[in-house]
Amino acid sequence: MPGGGVVTVTGTADVSRVEAPVTVKAYLIVAFAAFGGIFFGYDTGWMGGVLGMDYFIKQYTHKEYPDIIFPGDTTSDAYKAYKKGFVIPQWEQSLTTSILSAGTFFGAIIAGDVADFIGRRLTIILGCFIFTVGGILETASTGVGVMSAGRIFAGLGVGFISAIVILYMSEIAPKKVRGAIVAGYQFCITIGILLANCVVYATQKRRDTGSYRIPIAVQFAWALILGTGLAILPESPRYFVKKGKLDKAAKALASVRGQPVDSEYIQDELAEIIANHEYEMSIVPQTSYLGSWMSCFEGKLSQPSSNLRRTILGILMQMMQQLTGINFIFYFGTVFFQQLGTISNPFLISLITTLVNVLSTPFSFVMVEKLGRRRILIWGAASMVTMQFIVGIIGATAGKQSAHNPAAVKAMIAFICLNIASFATTWGPAAWIVIGEIFPLTIRSRGVGLSTASNWFWNCIIAVITPYLVADQPHSAKLGSNVFFMWGGLCCISFLFAFFLVPETKGLSLEQVDKMLEESTPRTSRKWKPHSTFAAQMNLAEKHIEVPIGTETVESKTAQEV
What we know:
Elements: E1 5-10, H1 24-33, H2 37-50, H3 54-61, H4 66-69, H5 77-85, H6 90-118, H7 120-140, H8 144-172, H9 178-203, H10 210-217, H11 219-232, H12 237-242, H13 246-257, H14 264-283, H15 289-294, H16 307-322, H17 326-339, H18 346-360, H19 363-370, H20 373-398, H21 406-425, H22 427-437, H23 444-470, H24 483-501, H25 510-519, H26 534-537, E2 544-549
Antiparallel strand pairs: 1-2
Helix pairs in contact: 1-9, 2-9, 2-17, 6-7, 6-8, 6-23, 7-8, 7-10, 7-11, 8-9, 8-22, 8-23, 9-10, 9-18, 9-19, 9-22, 16-22, 16-23, 16-24, 17-18, 17-23, 18-21, 20-21, 20-22, 20-24, 21-22
Keywords: Sugar transport, Transport
Protein name: High affinity glucose transporter RGT2
């Protein structure tokens, strides 16, 4: 092979050598990948504010501005009645908000197959392109039809990105800080929401198409930055191992870890990844396309290490995250705060709640590595139950008089902010971290895709039903602040879910997580310690795998073929 050579990969039985030392380059790569969270957050943040803009309401309902109909009159009953009806109809709020989640649901499911076919990196870039098409339609829209079409395409792109960014980061991040780095994805989501609220706040008073087109068009910058950056970053080495291209896997791993290809550390880590993949393949052999999907549901539900148990855990984890009710605040916060009556600028309150979300999330970087995933999920659910019940109790006590009780409204806002802080430091990041860690390589892309699809499915359900739960309009439940009793009750279920079903994965490599799930239960997982390697178990510590390294693409043999 011209300009090439051969690197002999040998495994190790030393559990401390299953991952190469971490360099600054590794941190920078995964930190940049976390930028994908901006897409998720920004698209979550701008829609709620746009739905409350005067120009947007006028354009979509064809109603005249209240101050034009009643010039100089803001106190009469006629003005107040007209102002109350000057809103986007419930069905349009529901459709334009929820249809993005419908697109992301299908995008996340499709992304798993695409990521296994063309790679994690190219799948994210493809998602950026699809998202851009959707953004063009959203920006050009003047009615609900084109806006809905744009939301579907944007959703498909966000589905690709939200699923595969987690997969990519989990596969290349160092185990000691993997939780903190993946939590950075959630931090980027919060920054995206904040940026959206800032832009919406700046354009809300405009009485032209710029009021809503500027917030939408800003999204193109995120697609350009992420797509361009991913084009020069390395592919996941675990993807190349799954495809049997060990030469490319070695070069990708060396690039990610900042080590020479022939480094002993690279040899040991690559051998462990190969051995784990061989082990998983021996347990659940890959057959047809349909059979490979069915392997996600192999095994017994009572066995923590079975693919079925892991898949259900991932799907329920993302469902529980959405059912905390956090997106009720970010999707419909502006509309909800308008209903409380005493708030003169609901856009500003929404901006404050978003700022709380951003400032709270960095605490999770430390908490998730010091306290662990399982513990913060349990504590976070308990905290959110408390905060949401308090909000509901205050609202129920104030009742219809909340419009004349500023103290009660301020107290509700304060506890809503505490609830957001509880979510941002626990369930917000930890749910994404866990789904990136629990799946074996054989089904990881599809497992993460299914879990992310669950997130968007329940996101869609919440977006559809919430206007009908809280809006003070005909044919709605008119729950108002009582909706927090519902969210608090659902957080009780999240508490039980985390306590009985979520294992502790802190400080373990992805291969060691597989071993931990085989040898412990969720309630005993925190005490489990690595004691052997897959390389030793599969006898790769005693074998040599020759990996061709050169300028030409060479299809390498798998360990079993050697």
